Design the sequence.
């Protein structure tokens, strides 16, 4: 695509500047097409996670931001997080410890799917797709790291997000798992045509993502 | 393209939510201010219903002629300061000397449950132990002492309030200990202590120089609350304190119930004087803080390592364990008396045990028990709702608690109870609210809410907010985050906070007495009413029940989540 | 505004309407019990003695069964506080729907309320059916309370007399006058004490000393003034000055009431105690508090005695219910049970000889207990001084002995 800012479909980050008090933390202007991955790289403190929270809709009030977030040409900047429908994955899977695996997924599952039986079937099917047959009644605390990461991904996908925001989601996985989960996430995003914003400090992630990479320079003093 | 300022997203939260913090704020400030006005105005002679319509200092003049007034003030002041100082020192020396050791964890587990033992029950237990005819003397008589009659020694009710100080210290140690435990991580105590140890400092010296400055800032308000409480406590004073004369707060209560209505002006003046005595004690303490801080700054550059602090460490641990042992032994003696037949001095055990005392006492304790449970359940329930509301508002509005908010929170704990409850009773009487259950619950809330909020605040705020982000990203509203994620995940701390509130409410004496107008006797007012006279067996039964009620609350707070989340490993207490 | 709130609140609770209905007439028993039915009577009574509390609870159950009256015992530590509460309500303009319906009272508290016009006006007590059996001839203290005429404004409930106790096993021959007591205390320092005034038993001890030592007893029956007080009390305070260092704890602490003093006897801390109730020791032996070697004695010259009553404040909310309770408390049935040392042991105000045979038999069957003196051995009854003496005595006591350092 010659001019990503003009793309009507996908996720657009337009003229975004984030300030911490008087200091400029970062500036970015980029666009991600459906199924593509935009990787934002930077050392810790570069503000890459802050960018992600701005896009997701829960920027801490100590920061101050200008610019806008568009999805398929619609400005979402003033919408609260729950109305943006951006799926979110952190380095921790953050499964709700008071719910079973199935409970976590039912909680995430879009309300468009109605009826007890239908919802349950959707959850069981989604678990099967990631090789977790029979895990619905399990306590999340009894799962391995890789299993948890898969459940977290499924929970996000079941909510029918319109884009994925990933905050170093693979950094806590061991090497063999990392590759597997990374592939799984990107495959699913591509299959569903979801634009993906990935922030990471791991060059391997960027390579695996295969899309555009933006390096955030350290903040201006 | 024009640069647009990205506005903060609208949070479609419930507009009613703001009501809860406002209500909480009003609850903390309102009764204290109304109560103080209700005391100050009559003290200055203004109480139209009793014919006082002009301002004068006559009440203070009459107050100053009360025999032994200044001694009463001195007692309040010295008991408050000494109690706070000793409790504080013991806790600090123990924490400094033992944190990170296995012994520390052991003592920590011993001390925590002691917090829930009501002051009155602990005081009775102590009295039953140390009196010349008490359990300790019985254990060693006659074979060690040769005594067949108790020695004529003034131990309980001694003139300087030493036994009263002891009774307060054993109860304030658990409180300060728990407050300190909560503050240690924020003060980065472990790390800093390792650094000082690496530099070759002894544990006590290293702690004093490196950890204390940060730690003390965190626990300062609770320490001041202990001081304010100890200068003005009534129930412990009635059980263990001197009587010729009594500490000031007890005397204010006596003047307040004098049949000569005119004495109400004196009582009001006394309440104001109590306010002054407590303020003076706080002032002395605050001055002492500065002096200590300066001494530390002077001592630090000398580089003395004070490595040989074994004696200090052992003394600290000994004092901690002793304080627990006294409370436990006291409860055991209470239990023994509650089931004792004839038990004369110097017999170490009663001639017989029977449940007759319980059978005799229980019928008349049913109503006080139900009242206490109802009041405590209502007060702790409302307090938890208010605290959740305030915390949720804070979270949604993105606010962080300020030191000013913290002072407001501690206000009811820093103002002597007798000073504003006295006036509050006058205000309630004007509104014909005295003796209503609603009034009692409101007054209990004033004292229960701060503890509930303090107990809930830390776990609530340290909840990983990314769970909220994930939930929002799943398309869920703030309310869903609250009801379906945050609240269930924090079930345990919420129930613990409720149990703390329940325990505080059960132990409240003066608020129940003054605002309840005697119509709502609770197990605590019954127990203290027996203090002056009745049979030890009956005191044993009543105080024992009083002591186990809070335990029951904490047991429930542990059991409910354990059952609810029996298949959820991560919902179990960590560590 | 405040009045509006108050009015709204009273209306809400329904106090205002009830109280305006006019005071009930005790001579119309039928109407009285009809009106009393369903009322809640807040009975403010000293609550420091479990036996008495149990007795009141029994009375409550009985009046509930028979008259549908709900009796709530508000346990107070000091009746003075109740007086102060009623006064405060009057001051606050709460002329009806008051929080006290019935109060256990006598002496200076009665006088305070009577003089301030804060008792139910009209002699209601003498119109109650049970009053017919009250021994007005043999027990003059039911007519004059601390020398002040009762005027039917309170209903007699019980008799009190100062009685001393000692443990035979320890002290065979106790002193039987104040002079002898002092002599005994010199030989046995630290073995005697008295409850700290203004506890009523402690104050009664002061009055007993006063009676025995004052030069002119007649003065005590009149209202006190500075001159008579000084003249009458000089020997009293000389006595107490001498006694103080010989007291338990050298007078630096005192038991707070007679229950605490009884515990001291049980613990062998003291050898002589006293109570305002002749059967106190028998009851305490029955409940394992005291050994069965404790016995009663009285002084040769007599001891202070009085009557205690129940009264209804002017603004009581449940006046009819309160009258029904007062009548029941005076009834032979309730009086006999009260006199039983296994229950309470408080002597009756009734003329037992004048009772119908069946009721008299109940009294005759009572076992007084080994430590209780029969009525004929209780000795002469000394009358209470005029009510004005007490406050003066208490203030002076507090000034002289209430501060120790």
Sequence:
């Amino acid at each position: 695509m010659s001019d990503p800012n003009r793309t009507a479909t996908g996720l657009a980050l337009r003229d975004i500047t984030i300030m911490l008090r008087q200091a400029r933390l970062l500036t970015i202007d980029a666009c991600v097409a459906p199924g593509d991955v935009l990787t934002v790289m930077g050392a810790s403190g570069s503000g890459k996670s802050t960018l992600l929270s701005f896009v997701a809709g829960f920027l801490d009030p100590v920061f101050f931001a200008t610019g806008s977030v568009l999805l398929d040409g619609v400005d979402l900047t003033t919408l609260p997080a729950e109305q943006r429908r951006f799926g979110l994955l952190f380095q921790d899977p953050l499964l709700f410890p008071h719910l079973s695996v199935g409970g976590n997924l039912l909680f995430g599952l879009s309300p468009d799917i109605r009826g007890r039986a239908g919802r349950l079937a959707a959850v069981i099917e989604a678990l099967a797709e990631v090789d977790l047959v029979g895990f619905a009644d399990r306590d999340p605390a009894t799962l391995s790291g890789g299993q948890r990461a898969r459940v977290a991904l499924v929970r996000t996908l079941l909510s029918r997000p319109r884009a994925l925001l990933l905050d170093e989601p693979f950094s806590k996985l061991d090497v063999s798992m990392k590759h597997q989960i990374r592939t799984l996430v990107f495959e699913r995003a591509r299959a569903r045509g979801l634009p993906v914003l990935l922030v990471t400090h791991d060059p391997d992630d960027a390579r695996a993502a295969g899309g555009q990479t933006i390096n955030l320079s350290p903040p201006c003093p | 393209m024009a640069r647009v300022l990205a506005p903060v997203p609208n949070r479609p939260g419930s507009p009613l939510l703001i009501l809860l913090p406002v209500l909480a704020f009003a609850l903390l400030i309102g009764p204290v201010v109304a109560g103080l006005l209700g005391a100050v105005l009559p003290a200055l002679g203004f109480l139209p219903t009793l014919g006082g319509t002009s301002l004068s200092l006559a009440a203070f003049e009459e107050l100053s002629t009360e025999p032994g007034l200044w001694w009463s003030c001195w007692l309040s002041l010295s008991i408050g300061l000494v109690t706070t100082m000793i409790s504080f020192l013991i806790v600090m020396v123990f924490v400094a000397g033992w944190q990170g050791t296995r012994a520390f964890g052991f003592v920590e587990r011993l001390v925590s449950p002691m917090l829930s033992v009501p002051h009155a029950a602990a005081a009775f237990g102590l009295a039953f132990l140390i009196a010349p005819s008490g359990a300790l003397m019985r254990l060693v008589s006659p074979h060690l002492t040769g005594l067949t009659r108790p020695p004529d020694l003034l131990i309980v009710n001694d003139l300087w309030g030493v036994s009263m100080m002891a009774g307060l210290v054993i109860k304030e140690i658990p409180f300060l200990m728990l407050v300190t435990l909560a503050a240690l991580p924020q003060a980065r105590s472990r790390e800093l202590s390792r650094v000082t140890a690496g530099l070759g400092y002894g544990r006590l010296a290293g702690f004093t120089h490196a950890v204390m400055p940060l730690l003390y800032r965190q626990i300062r308000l609770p320490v001041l609350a202990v001081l304010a409480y100890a200068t003005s406590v009534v129930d412990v004073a009635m059980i263990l304190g001197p009587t010729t004369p009594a500490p000031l707060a007890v005397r204010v209560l006596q003047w307040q119930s004098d049949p000569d209505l005119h004495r109400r002006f004196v009582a009001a003046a006394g309440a104001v004087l109590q306010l002054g005595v407590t303020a003076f004690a706080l002032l002395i303490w605050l001055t002492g803080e500065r002096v200590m801080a300066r001494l530390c700054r002077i001592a630090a550059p000398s580089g003395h390592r004070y490595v040989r602090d074994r004696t200090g460490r052992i003394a600290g641990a000994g004092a901690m364990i002793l304080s627990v042992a006294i409370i436990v032994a006291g409860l055991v003696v209470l239990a023994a008396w509650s089931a004792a037949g004839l038990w004369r001095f110097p017999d170490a055990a009663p001639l017989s045990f029977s449940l007759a005392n319980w059978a005799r006492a229980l019928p008349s304790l049913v109503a006080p028990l139900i009242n206490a449970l109802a009041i405590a359940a209502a007060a702790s329930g409302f307090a938890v709702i208010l605290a959740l509301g305030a915390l949720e508002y804070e979270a949604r509005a993105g606010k962080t608690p300020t030191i000013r908010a913290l002072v407001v929170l501690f206000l009811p704990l820093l103002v002597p109870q007798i000073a504003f409850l006295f006036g509050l009773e006058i205000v309630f009487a004007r509104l014909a609210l005295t003796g209503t259950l609603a009034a009692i619950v409101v007054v209990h809330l004033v004292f229960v809410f701060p503890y509930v909020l303090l107990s809930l605040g830390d776990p609530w705020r340290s909840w990983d907010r990314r769970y909220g982000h994930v939930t929002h990203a799943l398309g869920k509203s703030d309310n869903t985050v609250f009801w379906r994620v945050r609240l269930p995940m924090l079930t345990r701390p919420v129930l613990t906070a409720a149990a703390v509130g329940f325990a505080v409410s059960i132990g409240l004496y003066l608020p129940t007495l003054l605002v309840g107008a005697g119509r709502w006797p609770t197990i605590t007012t019954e127990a203290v009413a027996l203090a002056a006279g009745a049979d030890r067996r009956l005191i044993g039964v009543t105080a024992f029940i009083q002591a186990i009620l809070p335990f029951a609350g904490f047991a429930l707070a542990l059991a409910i989540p354990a059952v609810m989340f029996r298949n959820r490993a991560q919902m179990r207490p960590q560590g | 505004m405040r009045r509006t709130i108050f009015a709204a609140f009273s209306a809400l609770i329904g106090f205002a309407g009830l109280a305006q209905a006019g005071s009930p007439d005790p001579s119309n028993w039928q109407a009285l019990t009809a009106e009393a039915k369903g009322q809640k009577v807040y009975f403010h009574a000293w609550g420091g003695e479990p036996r008495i509390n149990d007795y009141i609870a029994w009375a409550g159950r009985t009046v509930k069964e028979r008259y549908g009256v709900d009796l709530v015992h508000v346990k107070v530590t000091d009746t003075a506080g109740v007086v102060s509460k009623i006064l405060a309500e009057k001051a606050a303009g709460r002329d009806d729907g008051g929080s006290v319906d019935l109060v256990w009272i006598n002496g200076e508290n009665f006088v305070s309320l009577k003089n301030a016009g804060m008792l139910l006006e009209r002699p209601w007590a003498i119109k109650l059916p049970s009053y017919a059996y009250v021994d007005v001839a043999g027990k003059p203290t039911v007519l004059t309370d601390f020398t002040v005429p009762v005027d039917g404004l309170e209903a007699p409930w019980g008799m009190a007399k100062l009685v001393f106790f000692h443990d035979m096993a320890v002290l065979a021959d106790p002193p039987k006058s104040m002079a002898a007591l002092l002599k005994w205390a010199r030989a046995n320092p630290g073995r005697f004490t008295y409850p700290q005034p203004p506890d009523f038993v402690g104050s009664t001890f002061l009055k007993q000393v006063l009676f025995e030592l004052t030069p002119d007893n007649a003065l005590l029956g009149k209202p006190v003034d500075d001159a008579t007080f000084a003249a009458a009390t000089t020997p009293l305070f000389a006595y107490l000055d001498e006694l103080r260092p010989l007291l338990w704890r050298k007078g630096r602490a005192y038991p707070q009431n007679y229950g605490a003093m009884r515990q001291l006897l049980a613990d062998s801390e003291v050898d002589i105690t006293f109570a305002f109730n002749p059967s106190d020791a028998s009851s305490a032996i029955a409940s394992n508090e005291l050994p069965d070697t404790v016995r009663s004695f009285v002084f040769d010259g007599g001891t202070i005695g009085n009557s205690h009553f129940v009264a209804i404040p002017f603004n009581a909310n449940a006046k009819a219910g309160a009258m029904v309770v007062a009548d029941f408390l005076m009834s032979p049935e309730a009086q006999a049970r009260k006199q039983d040392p296994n229950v309470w042991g408080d002597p009756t105000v009734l003329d037992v000889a004048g009772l119908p045979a069946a009721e008299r038999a109940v009294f005759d069957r009572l076992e007084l207990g080994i430590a209780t003196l029969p009525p004929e051995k209780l000795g002469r009854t000394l009358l209470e001084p005029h009510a004005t003496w007490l406050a003066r005595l208490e203030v002076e006591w507090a000034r002289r002995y209430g501060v120790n350092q």
Q: What stands out?
A: The two ends of chain C are 51 Å apart (CA to CA). DSSP finds 15 helices and eleven strands in chain C. Residues 1-21 of chain C have pLDDT under 50 and may be disordered. Chains C and A do not touch (no CB pair under 8 Å).
